[in-house]
Amino acid sequence: MTPLAITALSSVSALGRGRAAAADALRADRGGLRACDYEDAYVDCFIGRVDGVEDAPLTTAFRRFDCRNNRLAELALQADGVDAAVERTLRRYGADRVALVVGTSTSGVREGEYAFARRDPATGALPADFRFFDTHDHHALAAYLQARLGVAGPAMTVSTACSSSAKVFADAAQLIDAGLADAAVVGGADSLCLMTLYGFRSLELLDHAPARPNDRGRRGISIGEGAGFAVLERADDGAPALARLLGYGESADAHHMSAPHPEGRGAELSMREALRRAGLDPRAVGYVNQHGTGSRQNDGSEAAAIARVFGGGMRCSSTKGATGHTLGAAGIVEAAICCSALEQGFVPGNANLQDPDPELDIAVQALSAPAALEVVLTNSFGFGGSNCSLLLGRPR
Amino acid sequence: MIAASLLGIGLHAPGLAGWPAGREVLAGRARPDPAETPAPQPANLSPRERRRVSAAVRLALSVGQEAVAQAGIDAAAAPSVFGWAHGDGATVQKILVELATEERFVSPKDFHHSVHNVAVGYWAIATGSQRACTSVAAALDTFPAALLKALAQVQADREPVVLVVCDTPFPEPLNRVCPVGAPIGVGLVLAPAGRQGALAQLHAGYAAGAAPQAPEPPALPELWPHNAAVRALPLLAALAREAPAALQLPYGDAARLELEVTPC
Questions:
Q1: Residue A117 CB-density burial (10 A; 0-12 exposed, 13-18 middle, 19+ buried)
Q2: Do A156 and B136 meet the contact criterion of CB atoms below 8 Å apart?
Q3: Cβ–Cβ below 8 Å for B99 and A269
Q4: Confidence band (pLDDT; 50, 70, 90) for B35?
Q5: ∠ at Cα B81 (B78, B87), nearest 5°?
Q6: Are the CB atoms for A261 and A181 separated by under 8 Å?
Q7: What mean pLDDT, rounded, does chain A reach?
Q8: How many whole angstroms separate alpha carbon A223 and alpha carbon A150?
Q9: How many Å apart are CA A132 and CA B117, to the nearest integer?
Q10: pTM (2 decimals)?
Q11: Which active-site residues of A does the annotation give?
């Protein structure tokens, strides 16, 4: 594929607001997890909560969209000047020539949870102030962004669990390639809610301590939340690039709804497809940001797939021990980390690693270290065996 | 505009059970009988999986399967795009009800079946396809959104793509706030333009400005304001009549999908 330019990019996660906050924390090997203190969720786990979301309601014209998920999105629009960059992009191409493709797994389902807790005891009816389409529905995030930003090109929500906001790059590349848009706003948001905390608890996938991806003693994930957005344009058309999207790969495990293929068959296919689309040899890649959830199965099968694609000893890390697993936002949050790594020249460390799992045939970067990187790969895998790999490179 | 071939069609809606019967109704040659609509049963799921999945997932898989059978393509080799207006509302509501109790016990099966991509996940398992598969939503605009995504993918990779578009009702009380009305599923197999043996050639584009007026719904008009999948029926009606058509479908309040259909 012809590389696309990423001309604006933001992220918000437990590491802070803005890409610099995340990069600074990672370079200092500072994590963002804490014992679960989310509202009244009594779940024995650690979480990556974004500070201050409670105090940042959407107001005035956008009050109807107010919910935790859209608040996180708003923080990400403001964090790295993405809102101003979108405005420039709309002026340059025309609002209807800019597509909007965003990922989320649970959108504002927290509002549905509140509504069900407040059902009319006599009739079972939901409260009259429950705004389904503006908050709870999958497409509520996109609806908010359309209203807030004025993006008027084709709009869609990708909801493939934890690969959602990685796959949006592939969709945007196809829409631009097909001439349906000249540029795209991509990204996503996922926010803490009871559904994922209690759901992952029931699957026994939560570590009671902070998640330790790639560790011999890893016991599960720590749920986080986050958001981020990017502007994608043809490389020779627009504003100066922060980084380039060189390739994308997508695959399905065709194996199981909630467990990855044990040998990482789908993971291998998505990484190989990204390399093929980019026309790159595996040796061109300097670092792999793993999906690396901290679950026994994921890290083992992913490392096996990485070793088959890149050979043993590939330099890798998972940043989910620092951010938590931001679920549908993981794709954009980790793409943003990768772009900071390319820009600033460092490999992010693998937070909470104490005892690297000797079974994993990869070189896990325990602590952050300077490194000149030209091309990096980031993996995002989701329930339903939905896999996506993105290849990102330094701007020309 | 993007050009593409249409190779296969699947359909399931009240009174429109399967394309051969649905085509007769949509062409005005037969009257629909919603009472006589059998529940869709995808044949490509194992009996165990068929029991595990919801009625909504069975609907999605069965229309995809019908379209693939007509197209004569190998489903295992094809990428897939599933558009589902609101996901599996029955499963999501079950969890919301549980979370409102003291125990907050969420069944592990319900939780991993609550993801929006549950249908396409089972599609991959059923067909053995390891190709790209995605699950997209755009509320009432899910049909134009998923169609454009699938057509862009055909254009990028020059190979057939399976498209499934569904909208399935919520139980009460969510049904009150999002009254989908009836389960409707449409399957299409799309391929690069000019394919031999295609049912029709399509040209699709996105244009600013609201659709001048919504096309006359060829069936189930009462569902048009609420059900995203019913909005695929004007395309299917044109195919049923085997007459060229130029359609303008709403895509949000201020844009439209333009769709030219030329039956082969």
A1: middle
A2: yes
A3: no
A4: confident
A5: 140
A6: no
A7: 97
A8: 32
A9: 20
A10: 0.98
A11: 162, 291, 325
Domain residues of chain A, as ranges?
4-393
DSSP string, B19-87: HHHHHHHHTTSS---GGG-PPP--TTS-HHHHHHS-HHHHHHHHHHHHHHHHHT--GGG--EEEEESS-
Helices (H), chain A: 19-27, 68-79, 82-93, 109-117, 140-149, 164-177, 194-202, 265-278, 296-310, 320-323, 330-344
Verify whether the Cβ–Cβ distance B141 to A155 is below 8 Å. yes
Extract the tokens encoding A45.
């786990």
The end-to-end CA distance of chain A, in Å, is 16
Q: What domains are defined for chain B?
A: 8-192 (3.40.47.10)
Instruction: Locate all alpha helices (DSSP H) within A282-394, ordered by sequence.
Output: 296-310, 320-323, 330-344
DSSP-derived secondary structure for A142-186? HHHHHHHH---S-EEEE--GGGHHHHHHHHHHHHHHTTS-SEEEE
The contacts of residue B66 (CB under 8 Å, 6+ apart) are: B8, B9, B10, B11, B12, B18, B19, B187
Does ipTM surpass 0.90 in this model?
yes
Q: Could you tell me the two tokens for A325?
A: 């697993």
Cα nearest neighbour of A181 on chain B: B206
What's the gap in Å between the CA of B239 and the closest CA on chain A?
24
Tell me, what's the pLDDT at A238? 72
- d(C-alpha B167, C-alpha B162), whole Å: 17
Q: What is the CATH code of the structural domain delimited by A4-393?
A: 3.40.47.10
B81 contact residues in A (CB cutoff 8 A)? none
d(CA B126, CA B124): 5
Name the residue facing A254 among B86, B128, B254 (closest C-beta): B128
In a structure prediction context, what are the per-residue pLDDT tens digits for chain A, which is 396 residues long? 999 999 999 999 999 999 999 999 999 999 999 999 999 999 999 999 999 999 999 988 999 999 999 999 999 999 999 999 999 999 999 999 999 999 999 999 999 999 999 999 999 999 999 999 999 999 999 999 999 999 999 999 999 999 999 999 999 999 999 999 999 999 999 999 999 999 999 999 999 999 999 999 999 999 999 999 999 999 877 789 999 999 999 999 999 988 899 999 999 999 999 999 999 999 999 999 999 999 999 999 999 999 999 999 999 999 999 999 999 999 999 999 999 999 999 999 999 999 999 999 999 999 999 999 999 999 999 999 999 999 999 998
Q: Roughly how many angstroms between the first and final C-alpha of chain B, as a whole number?
A: 19
What is chain B's mean pLDDT, rounded? 96
Q: What is the dihedral of CA B215, B216, B219, B222, to 10 degrees?
A: 100
The distance of A9 to chain B (nearest Cα, Å) reads 23
Q: Count CB-CB contacts under 10 A for residue B253.
A: 9
Question: Does residue A263 sit at the B interface (CB-CB below 8 Å)?
Answer: no
Question: What are the pLDDT digits (tens) for A96-116?
Answer: 999 999 999 999 999 999 999
What SS3 state is found at A56?
A: coil
Q: CA–CA separation, A34 vs A15, rounded Å?
A: 11
Classify strands A375-382 and A362-364 as parallel, antiparallel or unpaired. Answer: unpaired
Collapsing DSSP to helix, strand or coil, A341 comes out as helix
